[in-house]
Amino acid sequence: MEMVTNVMEFEKIAKEKLPKMVYDYYASGAEDQWTLQENRNAFSRILFRPRILIDVSEIDVSTRVLGFNISMPIMIAPTAMQKMAHPDGELATARATSAAGTIMTLSSWGTCSVEEVASTGPGVRFFQLYVTKDRNVVRQLVKRAEEAGFKAIALTADTPRLGRRESDIKNRFALPRGLTLKNFEGLDLGKIEKTDDSGLASYVAGQIDQSLSWKDIKWLQSITSLPILVKGVITAEDARIAVEYGAAGIIVSNHGARQLDYVPATIMALEEVVKAVEGRIPVFLDGGVRRGTDVFKALALGASGVFVGRPTLFSLAADGEAGVRKMLQMLRDEFELTMALSGCRSLREISRNHIKTDWDFPHYVPAKL
Predict the structure, then answer these.
(1) Ligand-binding site membership of 203 (annotated)
(2) Which of 86, 255, 354, 363 is the catalytic position?
(3) Could you give the CA distance from residue 317 to residue 21 in angstroms, rounded to a whole number?
(4) C-beta neighbour count of 308 within 10 angstroms
(5) Which tens digit of pLDDT belongs to each residue from 106-135?
(6) Dist. CA 177–CA 347, nearest whole Å
(7) Using one digit for the tens of pLDDT, what is the confidence trace for 68-99?
(8) What are the residues facing 63 on neighbouring strands?
(9) Any known ligand binding at 258?
(10) Does 352 carry a binding-site annotation?
(11) What angle do CA 242, 246, 251 make, to 5 degrees?
């Protein structure tokens, strides 16, 4: 594999190695893909206010998430069907994440099961949950995740229907031959097969419960002792409701810009959500993170940590477990460097005063890259 000097370069390698249908599924967003671009571009509208002449000879990037000590505030987001990227799929991601000392979130739509991921060895892992129409299936999935040692449920709340992903429609996306959604094996939930448009969209329409509402957080709490993170919050109104219903945390996410196009970049929505929860529960960011500088900016705006999705898939496609390890190490190294150059020795020292944004100075127009 050619020399990789930053996380974004994994995508080029992945594009060359993966079948077009698979790459497009991982890379594309909804409709015009405006939000897909904005998730990245918005970070460039946040600038640093570094402090100088501070002893940064020792820097601590470790943190705690839901009571668990992790090596850095950079975690793995849930991404589906990882065996399309590499034969080891979610198992490689689990091993790499554990080696890095951070948290992996396994997708409900994984091509490896909760039990298989648990079998890779110790590690702090969360389980991402789609709520199906058959609530007995949900009960079984949650129970299996709990028994397999997963530590939290990340409830995806922004997908009553699948967003219009035109690449998947053109490619007539279907799960490649020989792969299955392992968590659903034996549960009579059908398969993602070729249709006249997107096989995934057809599958979701048949399985996902469109009646899901806030009261179902209470229902989930009644069937599990695991903390519930609500994933998909981008407004202050929903953040306050999540707190009221007992969410253990919020993941500010627009589903990788794959659901409703023309919603704000998650980094733009983050501060509104942070202010609304008033420190009552932790807030995490998911979407657009490709640099250690992005991680710092998210923490300066009040996030307790970030989740990365596409970088996981592309580094996995590029070089399997070693690729994911390298991706996580790159982000950690860049983040630590950003802390040093900003005069911060621990996460506690990162503050809103270390950045300025274009909404702080509305007449500021950044130069185009």
Answers:
(1) no
(2) 255
(3) 14
(4) 25
(5) 999 999 999 999 999 999 999 999 999 999
(6) 45
(7) 999 999 999 999 999 999 999 999 999 999 99
(8) 70
(9) yes
(10) no
(11) 45
